[in-house]
Amino acid sequence: MKTSLKTCFKCDKEKPLSDFYRHSEMADGHLNKCKSCTKRDTKKNRRRRLEYYRAYDRMRGNRQSAEYRARYKDDAPGKAKARHAVSNAIRDGLIARHSCEICGSPRTHGHHDDYLKPLSVRWLCPGHHSQWHAINGEGANGDASAESVLQAAKVQRSQLRAAA
Ligand SMILES: [Zn+2]
Ligand SMILES: [Zn+2]
Ligand SMILES: [Zn+2]
Q1: The whole model's pTM is what?
Q2: pLDDT per position in the chain (164 positions), as tens?
Q3: Which residues have CB less than 5 Å away from ligand 2 (the ion)?
Q4: Does the residue 46 lie in any domain?
Q5: Which element (helix H / strand E) includes 120?
Q6: Separation of 121 CA from ligand 1 center, angstroms?
Q7: 10, 23, 74, 118: most buried, per Cβ within 10 A?
């Protein structure tokens, strides 16, 4: 019997299909993220949510809510840098915005499978974008530092320039 293998987009390891949770909306009926990565992410998300709520409770009734909001806005500085890198690359003609790869809608977000590949984006309309995250959770390296994302963007920009 032939075992079909699938590559997890998070850990990049090739594993048998039985190592992926079933999901009816996926083309092959399974998530793109392996079971161990899914478990780890679920744990991480729960922990992050708890921290967030604890901080919120501490700040409640406190007048420093603007400061609190600003703090959480750059909670993931690497992600913000990745988004900036995309708009700069579009501005500079290095990459082009596309229509949604699933439904063809022209209004799209540049989605990152991996924040350390800031200029490798998937174009998805808002609906398919939230669906992607509902199915797959956060993209890889969502906690990357601003500096590492900037560095990765620099490398990708020179690769795109060389290819042009
Ligand atoms: Zn994995
Ligand atoms: Zn779409
Ligand atoms: Zn996304």
Answers
A1: 0.57
A2: 566 899 999 999 999 999 999 988 888 889 999 999 998 988 888 777 777 666 666 655 544 455 544 444 446 899 999 999 999 999 999 999 999 999 999 999 999 999 999 999 999 999 999 999 888 888 999 999 999 999 999 999 999 999 87
A3: 100, 102-103, 105, 125, 128
A4: no
A5: none
A6: 20
A7: 118
